[in-house]
Amino acid sequence: KVHFFLFFFPPQVLLLACAEDLECVPGFQQKVLYLEHPFEFTEDQPVLNLEFDDCKGNNKLNFEVSNPDFKVERDGSLVALKNISEAGRALFVHARSEHAEDMAEILIVGANEKHGALKEIFKTEASLGIPRQKRAILATPILIPENQRPPFPRSVGKVISSERAEGAKFRLSGKGVDQDPKGIFRINEISGDVSVTRTLDREAIANYELEVEVTDVSGKTIDGPVRLDISVIDQNDNRPMFKEGPYVGHVMEGSPTGTTVMRMTAFDADDSSTDNALLRYNILKQTPTKPSPNMFYIDPEKGDVVTVVSPVLLDRETMETPKYELVIEAKDMGGLDVGLTGTATATILIDDKNDHPPEFTKKEFQATVKEGVTGVIVNLTVGDRDDPATGAWRAVYTIINGNPGQSFEIHTNPQTNEGMLSVVKPLDYEISAFHTLLIKVENEDPLIPDIAYGPSSTATVQITVEDVNEGPVFHPNPMTVTKQENIPIGSVVLTVNATDPDTLQHQTIRYSVFKDPAGWLEINPTNGTIGTTAVLDRESPYVQDNKYTALFLAIDSGNPPATGTGTLHITLEDVNDNVPSLYPTLAKVCDDAKDLRVVVLGASDKDLHPNTDPFKFELNKQSGPEKLWRITKLNNTHAQVILLQNLKKANYNIPISVTDSGKPPLTNNTELKLQVCSCKKSKMDCSATDALHISMTLILLSLFSLFCKSFP
Q: Where is the Cadherin domain positioned along the sequence (predicted)?
């Protein structure tokens, strides 16, 4: 080897040539370069020339610069992309060609370092803290076919280093070496041979990015790491697969030739950039084969299924079945015979359009119904050749004549498509014994433009009404009358009137009581006069909101007899027939009470105003030499009882009268029981008063007995 150093001093540039072999070594010819930092890097002005040689013509040579403000031209010129005043202390340039790759460092130094000796420059480099690294490792990309068969391991490539020291070793790392999946690749520490230890699957992992280093005997890195790319070459080992099924397409009957029905798309796990995943489509089978064995065509590249028959043949009503099944094949390798295949079934449904109007099965229908009855009387049948699952088949019926009173309605039976004609308002034989309806039928969906509804889409329904014995009818119903309560027994309340709607029959009517909750009424069976059998009481629980309700029957003489029901509401006017009641009737007070207001009394009356309040409260005559209490009115319905002095423990009866405002007024004489109790520590004890009351009663009885014996 011949070692020499070259110093070039063009403006702003100092180049240091590295030692190199006389033979061609792939990579940068100068791996470390020094660049004097100018006042400013000028846009598009070359500042440095880099020399890269892969020893094989530099095919597909590409440069990458660590600083995005710079680029390297094809001829190796380093150029600033814009005016830059500060570019940092170092730039890294990565070069890659078809056969080699390498890294170069450009160290940017100040002007005072320009003329120093080589030794001083190295000192400056160290003082700047910039590590000087060699990039002597050449790791060209490795391509490995998938699915290789044993034996393993097998050599797949080689890493070389142009400046390996004695005892230096290669070390390989990354996913597939010391990271999961581990142990797939390994490197010969001495020779740099890279080998694979097992079969690879491109569909599992297509690329491996490893790193190669050169280490000394102790394992310390002295060069690298350098990236080593391993790519797995695809083989045609995956069949096309249809993953998106089931595949169902729809096309309207009568569609033009070339109408797209659906798209079939298969997936091939092989490399999409190769013919291994280049798919072509074909129809293998069509079921059924009528009216044509070739109803559809599939675009071999896109997978679009289109119609190829004329619209006349695409007629749903003339087909054997509106459903077709196609067996679709997808073949890789661009459809060549060597390609792998996958199949799927596509179902194509011929959708119906409304090209057939519904038609009645006959022009006239007959129906018979009894008067007074509602419900379905006849089902109208129609035929329609369209698809029963669509609005092109479902019928909609309309009564277009003969229904002025809206006595009839027609609805569609969703299962049979029949028209269910119903009576919704009871018919009267005496008014009309016959009815004629004109009915039309249409589809839910409109007909296509060139089809119209014809005469068969209308029909006549003849309805005969049968006479039945109808019950008499009360006029009015309900009947209302107002009476005073307490009217004399036997008073006439009302004479009812009922008529027989069967005017063509001469029948008699008799009356009876049907429901009389209080048992107050009776009715003359011949003339319908209602009278009282008891006193009418407005305060009775059978009266609600001053109204008493009873039901009566009118029965004709038909065979069998028919019955009508009439309702009578009697509004009862109030009479002052209830004395007021007093509450409460018991009061308690402490014998040492300071507040002598014993109790507030209230009065109520079952009658209505003005036979109720204002009430008059009074004390009846008090026994004894002095008055013990008095009563004071608080308002129209309440008064207060007040003690005039504290009383001894005992029971006292206070005579009170309360009078209402009726005309004439009614008075209730009653007593308020007052208990005077002993009270200690907020507790009231009334037991002594009861005992005293009993004792006083026994004494009075004894005295009365003695008095009676003294006067036989």
A: 144-242, 243-360, 361-474, 475-582, 581-692
For the chain, percent of residues with pLDDT exceeding 70: 88
Which of 464, 488, 523 represents a domain boundary (last residue)?
464
For residue 23 the two structure tokens come to: 């033979």
Q: Are 403 and 418 in contact (CB under 8 A)?
A: no
The reply to whether 561 and 503 lie within a common domain is yes
Dist. CA 383–CA 359, nearest whole Å? 5
Of the residues 429, 464, 499, which one is the last residue of a structural domain? 464
Q: Are 566 and 474 in contact (CB under 8 A)?
A: yes
pTM for the full predicted model: 0.46
Q: Give the pair of three-digit tokens for residue 150.
A: 């044993």
Residue type, 473: V
As for how many domains the chain has, the answer is 6
3 state SS of 693: helix
Q: How far apart are CA 265 and CA 339, in angstroms?
A: 17
Least Cα distance to 33 among 12, 18, 21, 11 occurs for 18
Distance in angstroms (rounded) separating the CA atoms of residues 79 and 43: 7
Q: Per-residue b/e over 398-409, b at no fewer than 16 CB within 10 Å?
A: ebeebeeeebbe
What average pLDDT score do residues 186-201 get?
93
For tokens 């027994």, the residue is 489
Q: Tell which residue, 200, 201, 199, 197, has the closest CA to residue 152.
A: 197
pLDDT exceeds 60 at position 71? yes
d(CA 660, CA 647): 32
**Pairing mode, strands 169-174 and 142-145:** unpaired
**Residues 538 and 507 both lie in one domain:** yes
Report how far apart, in Å, the C-alpha atoms of 488 and of each of 118, 494, 574, 609 are. 147, 15, 15, 23
Query: What's 508's domain CATH number?
Result: 2.60.40.60
Tell me: do 588 and 672 sit in the same domain.
Answer: yes
* Dihedral angle, C-alpha 41, 43, 48, 49, nearest 10 °: 170
- CA-CA-CA-CA torsion sign (288, 293, 296, 301): positive
Rounded Cα distance between 453 and 440, Å, is 10
Which domain, by its residues, includes 82?
27-109
The residue among 13, 18, 37 whose CA lies nearest residue 132 is 18
Q: Which residues contact 700 (CB under 8 A, 6 or more apart)?
A: none
CA 569/CA 551 separation, integer angstroms: 9
- Over residues 68-79, mean pLDDT: 87
Residue 113 has pLDDT above 50, yes or no: no
* Three-state DSSP class for residue 393: coil
Asked if the model's pLDDT at residue 110 lies above 70, the reply is no
Please, which residues bridge with residue 63 across strands? 95
- Which range has the worst mean pLDDT, 41-45, 351-355, 423-427? 41-45
Task: Pick the more confident residue, 108 or 494.
Answer: 494
For the cut 90, the answer to whether the pLDDT of residue 32 exceeds it is no
Same domain, 31 and 58: yes
In 3D space, the residue among 92, 125, 95 whose CA is nearest the CA of residue 106 turns out to be 92
